[in-house]
Amino acid sequence: AQEKKIFMVQGPYPIIRHLLRARGWVERKLPSVGRQLEQHRGDQNKHRLKMRPRNGAGGQGEALLNPCGGAQPFLETTDPLHYPWPPTEEEEEKEEEECDEDPSGMHDLMSYLVRNRLPNFIWTNFLEATDHELLQKDHVVNHYARVDAFTTKEGLCLSLQNLPWIEQADPNTFFPRCYRLGTADEQEAFIEDFRLTAARSLLKLALEEAGDRPVRTKQLPNSAKGAGESLISHPKHSTAQEGSPLYPELVEEALEVCKQHLGVLRHQDIDRGTPSPCRTCIDWDRFLQQYYRVAHEGAELVLTRQQRKQCQHLLRLLAEQLPQLGMEGKLNVWILKPGAESQGRGIVCTARLEEVLQLARGFTATSVHVGRWVVQKYVERLLTIFGTKFDIRQWFVVTDWKPLTVWFYQDCYLRFCSWPFSLCHLERARHLCNVSVQKWCKTSPDQDPRVPPDKIWSNKQFQEYLAQLGQADAWHQVLVPGMKAAILNALRSAQDQVGFRKGSFELYGADFLVGEDCQPWLLEINSCPTMRPSSAVTRQLCANVQRDTLRLVLDRKNNPSCSIGAFELIYKE
């Protein structure tokens, strides 16, 4: 019936608007006054959204739907009526919907006629504090409440820490270890992790130099065809000061720390009451300064034959206990992120403990709660394409939380950096693949010309590249199963915290890095993935995923056998 086909679109989604109108739906447009107020007050309201406590909606703004027209002000505020539009990937540009073509004024007229009716379908940027009394059971909304439990960096970090208590799964096999610096216990755990990683890294560096062999980095056997260079840049600079040799106990201390840590990992310390390896008598400040000289300044290590054997044996045993030992590399690089930001805002890479702690204390960004920072291990041994870092944006939809029902989109895209990958240089242009970051970066003259100018590839192009490397099966046998498992584990870890509502659904965008072995590493999950195309590839894919999402959540209700495009049901409890 026509009365059941009223929709509202808030944000830059012209494709959604076009597809719904083609189905015979009538749009209830936002009042123009709301748009004007947003232009003048937008920054203030965005700031308020980010500063609100986690009060049940995860800091994701939802305009309270008002059947008399417009939106109600947020609870506990005295702001005039407005529509909160948190920043999109292209917030500095004018919204497409303002340029909506309606030369005859027909859509405006139809909107006026339904101005006092509640929309039956709502597609908006963010939701906060939904007034469920105003939503009928058959109304469809494209967000759930309290999804910050897995769609913020801080929330995902905390939820995945609890995963082993919920599922028989280890987050360390798919999510780089992560700590919330605003929590005293986790900051202490990070400091200990940094020190232990430095000790393991020192052993790796020592083995490289054993026998005075030239330092080389590991390379995939069949990567030469595409990358044309080592996957990990040479870690050293020749800046070590002559006349200041490393103290001779350095390797022995690293070996002893790693032995103690192995004992802890094997639970051999339960009866002995062995203290943490990082609380022994080692002078950690001195140890780290010496490690920095080896890792970053080219200071040389000398190993005895016995020490070399010990290093090899110990690292083999640690690899059996630590799923991330292979990907963590040798330079102990970590990435510091605001806990509730997106689009690469505020992210910094560093390889020194004191810098992490100083940055976490020193940041005064008004958009972030004090202390709400996470620090995560950087994936140093990653797969590059033509010597350039990339990540994968993978879509999926949740149509129900009870029972949990998850649909995986079989098409996705890759995002490239603008500068060649190097761990010697930690600029954002080399290490952050976000389109919102890279669009401001001038392409390096050292960039391989085979990197696409628009810095985007489809998954089909990536599969062709893998085939050229002799890894034709990696996409379907390693990458896709790994991404599906990571997504499901993240959702299950946060399932009990999400605000469930029948009739809602949500489209998410998960970001993955790819290790040297083609294993995917989950970085984050976005609750409002951009649908603004930045390339020919994303123009087609973004249009397709919006079309198929509407098929999934609308058309399938009346016709369960209808086409749902590239969506695949991967889980239903």
Automatic annotation (TrEMBL):
Its main location: cytoplasm. It comes from the Eukaryota. Pfam families: TTL. One of its GO terms (molecular function) is ATP binding. The keyword Nucleotide-binding applies. The keyword Nucleotide-binding applies. Residues 37-46 have a biased composition (Basic and acidic residues). Residues 88-103 have a biased composition (Acidic residues). Keywords: ATP-binding, Cell projection, Cilium, Cytoplasm, Cytoskeleton, Flagellum, Ligase, Nucleotide-binding. Residues 36-60, 79-103, 214-243 are annotated as: Disordered. InterPro entries: TTL/TTLL_fam, TTLL_monoglycylase. GO terms for cellular component: axoneme; microtubule cytoskeleton. It catalyses: L-glutamyl-[protein] + glycine + ATP = glycyl-L-glutamyl-[protein] + ADP + phosphate + H(+). It is found in: Cytoplasm, Cytoskeleton, Flagellum axoneme. GO terms for biological process: cilium assembly; cilium movement. This is TTLL3 monoglycylase. It comes from Vireo altiloquus (Black-whiskered vireo).
